Amino acid sequence: MKRPQSIRPHRGKLAVLLPGLGAVATTFVAGAMLARRGLAKPVGSLAELGTIRLGRRTEGRVPKIRDFVPLAPLDDLVFGGWDIFQENALEVARQARVLEERHLEPIAAELAAVRPMKAAFSPEYVTRLHGTHLKSGSKAELVEQLREDIRNFIRDNGADRAVAVWCGSTEVFIEPGPVHQSVAAFERGLREGDPKIAPSQLYAWACLKERVPFVNGSPNLTVDFPAMSELAREMSVPIAGKDFKTGQTLMKTVLAPMLKARLLGVEGWFSTNILGNRDGEVLDDKDSFKTKEASKLGVLEQILEPEKYPDLYGNIFHKVRIEYYPPRGDAKEGWDNLDIFGWLGYPMQLKLNFLCRDSILAAPLVLDLALFTDLAARSGFRGMQEWLSFYFKSPMSAPNVYPENDLFIQLMKFKNTLRWLQGEELITHLGHEYYD
Ligand SMILES: NC(=O)c1ccc[n+]([C@@H]2O[C@H](COP(=O)([O-])OP(=O)(O)OC[C@H]3O[C@@H](n4cnc5c(N)ncnc54)[C@H](O)[C@@H]3O)[C@@H](O)[C@H]2O)c1
Q: How far is the CA of 263 from the centre of ligand 1 (A)?
């Protein structure tokens, strides 16, 4: 890939479209509204608070990322979305009970104005939810209706362009089939109503057709198959996914590289979670959980490489559980028990208890992904954006390479991509120049 000669400057408004206006989406929208009024800090966002070192350590050049690459400012974002329930973003945020009234009250009118458009949905894909705010029509017609929504939203809000971040529910587990192998097969599947085309795929297809970059924040099979990559390249649009890396997997992708770096062995890794939000309710269904489980299980194998270190990681028992426990709401609690071993095989244990907040951890990721994917589009990047793997539990990668899951390698890849984009020297951390 050639370095772009120039980045199309940001101008006008950027529409951030959110299929699934639930806890994560409304926490993100409310936070962006508060931050731009100076009423709260966008903690956790690299786009807003991150810095980037340029050149040698002696040069002292460490601008804010926002001053280094031309991101759309918070003031220029307009928010829209779709949901199977018709409540506006203020009502949803109140029901989700993530944000306190002191944070909702100052932006109540602005938040209430974010009203979901009717959803493309089929109950076989999310069996626990029974919404009524739905479009009707064949799969091909639903795509056309979504495309019309996108065009209308951009026009009605005077936006220059849009990006979409899927914040909808986790759908049941599906594997790519023949319908997912090419644009032609997928288009045929849309016309024939192929049951393997999930609702989230309809949104992604509609967005790409409208040249709107699409990010998948859930573990669904949505943009990670050949037909979507082909369409993204054809339309010159970026795609990214999947599954926001926020809680337990974030911890895993920090701890596992540490154990591997020190060559400490792992015998077992048991992870369990309790959460009581709507996401937890959806994941209580075994087929939706299977989608999440697949996304969560993959990371250890890739980081620890048991085939290269059979003595250390060849026999790991890895288990992940999610328990729906309504009293906790969005305040998820994760426990990890690691049975590890060291010198001469002596056993040890490591326990981690993360009392976190699901949507508070996810919201800054939605913001960053919207802004960086928009930057990618204006830089002429198209197809899958591996440099954004930092944000995902199951990052997409080219078919011939394994995905990179180590958080710090992902961060280096992310920052080096920004340096490369702006014609700055890449940082290798070799450092011998200071001693010559
Ligand atoms: N830390 C996190 O919160 C986190 C981390 C990783 C991934 N995720 C994923 O993000 C997604 C959103 O999480 P949440 O806590 O906001 O869940 P939520 O249940 O509060 O919100 C999801 C919303 O999507 C809507 N929806 C479902 N199918 C739809 C469709 N076809 N069209 C439009 N709307 C649809 C639901 O009605 C619901 O309002 C989930 O898939 C979750 O697994 C969340």
A: 38
Please give the Cα distance from 220 to 36 (Å, whole number).
Answer: 32
Domain 248-355 is classified in which CATH homologous superfamily?
Dihydrodipicolinate Reductase; domain 2 (3.30.360.10)
Atom of ligand 1 nearest to the CA of 170: 41
Q: Tell me how far apart the alpha carbons of residues 108 and 41 are, in angstroms, rounded to a whole number.
A: 18
129 Cβ below 6 A of ligand 1: yes
Can you give the residue ranges of every domain in the chain?
13-244+360-421, 248-355
Q: Which atom of ligand 1 is nearest to the CA of 292?
A: 43
- pLDDT digit string, tens, across residues 316-360: 999 999 899 999 888 889 999 999 999 999 999 999 999 999 999
Q: Which residue has the higher pLDDT, 202 or 4?
A: 202
Q: What is the mean pLDDT of residues 307-314?
A: 96
This prediction has a pTM of: 0.95
Pocket test residue of 18, 21, 24 for ligand 1, highest count of atoms within 8 A of CB: 24
22: CA distance to ligand 1 center in Å?
A: 6
Q: For residue 428, what are the contacts with CB-CB under 8 A and spacing of at least 6? A: none
Spatial distance between the Cα atoms of 209 and 186, rounded to a whole number of angstroms: 13
